[in-house]
Amino acid sequence: MAGMTLSTHVLDTEHGTPAGGVRVAVYYDAALVGEGVTGDDGRISELAAGPAGTYLVVFHPPSPFFRRVELEVSLDDGHHHIPLLVSSYACATYRGS
Question: Given this model, what pLDDT does residue 96 score?
């Protein structure tokens, strides 16, 4: 597979539920290359596709404290999954599978 693909999953850890309705945008070289809104299951299965490289992933979670969460990630060829766990008190992410 040439290039990379990206998906995401946002979980509201404060309430123990998927976070639906979260806007997510993906940028490559400052250009918007993908965007979407999480469904009721908190997922966006086809968020972005493009060449391997450095991407900026921007989440707008339903947290009164974390209004915007930005991740700069280096993505090789292949599929990548980047989850976000968020509450009013904390947020975390990890390299998903």
Answer: 86
pLDDT along the chain (97 residues), means of 10: 89 96 97 98 97 97 92 96 95 91
pLDDT at 38 (0 to 100): 98
User: Residue 52 carries which DSSP code?
Assistant: S
C-alpha distances (whole Å) from 48 to each of 4, 29, 36, 41, 82 are 8, 14, 9, 18, 12
CA gap 97, 88 in Å, rounded: 26
Which secondary-structure segment (H or E) carries 34?
strand 31-37
- Name the residue among 94, 89, 34, 31 with its Cα closest to residue 61: 89
Strand (E) or helix (H) holding 91: strand 91-93
- Model-wide pTM > 0.85: yes
The boundaries of the domain holding residue 67 are 4-93
CATH of residue 78: 2.60.40.180
Q: How many domains does the chain have?
A: 1
